[in-house]
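== Polypeptide entry ==
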Amino acid sequence: MALAVGGLIIGTAFGWTVYKTNFCIMGSLSDIHNLADWRRFRAWVLAAAVAMLAAQVLRWSGAVPLERSMYLTPSLNWFGHAFGGAVFGFGMVLCGGCPTRNLVRFGAGDLRAMIVLIVIAITGFVTLGGLFGPLRDALEQLTALNLRRVGMSTQSLGAALATSGAGTAVGLDLVLACVAALSACVFVFKDRAFATSRHHVVSGIAVGLLVACGWALTGLTYDEFAAQPSAPISLTFIRPLGDTLDWLQRFTAIPIPGFGISSVVGTLIGGSLAALHAGRFRVLGFADVADLKANLTGAVLMGIGGAMALGCTIGQGVTGLSTLAIGSIITTSALVFGGLQGLRYLERSMT
């Protein structure tokens, strides 16, 4: 119940923040590519920095066993992170935004986003354990690196440095988080246009803190002695979208949802409340068949890519990065690459 209620509250606050501040990672890449405007990108960097520092402090204090999360397994699926991240990044451009953006848009009345979310949920499930599951698993088994062979118990940067005897993985991760957060603050606040833009600054800090709240909630409720313990997690929207679709169909069997489902529903509610508050709730549909094709193609690519990379722009680009996982760094880099390639593709197709 704590995970369900807490996830709903955090998700609602997240959806409200995303809508009100126009926080959008795909939009940040579009701003850079088309307008040379780095403010939304800096907001993303700030969000990741805040989440990273908070998550590592929580881990160091013993409040959250981050090493139990899916991000820090000692198996590094580098191909899935690289290929999946690039495919996801390309797909989100065709849809005009990632799952987070589409959840908020759906909450504001955009029925195109509803179709995109359903397709992402189905395609993600198909890739994780459905028709495409065996192929994805075979690729992972073929390319994944077992980091235990080089003395790493997790795939965090601190664990990699700890193999040299420089210190413990937990302590080194905290030091690295402090250095990264300080560097990020210098990068984002040295730009006057960003520093004087209140809603960009607020969006970065708020998103980072909400991710930290997710870690705190799921970490403090983690019970390793439970029959089926729920690993610590925070905001992410690929697997939870599929879980939400499944929960809607099997509510009587699973009346109380977990954190992931509740955060999805909360984000939808938060976006809807923010749109209603702003007087911008509008029911919208596809402009034409070409618009439908582009959105469906992008949704399929995001579902497949997100499942392979174990996350989306928020799930890997903020939540994953906060763990200092090598896989999250690879995914985020690939996501940016794929997004920029998608923007170039759209630019060429319009000329």
User: Anything to note?
Assistant: The first strand starts at residue 75 and ends at 76. The two ends are 53 Å apart (CA to CA).
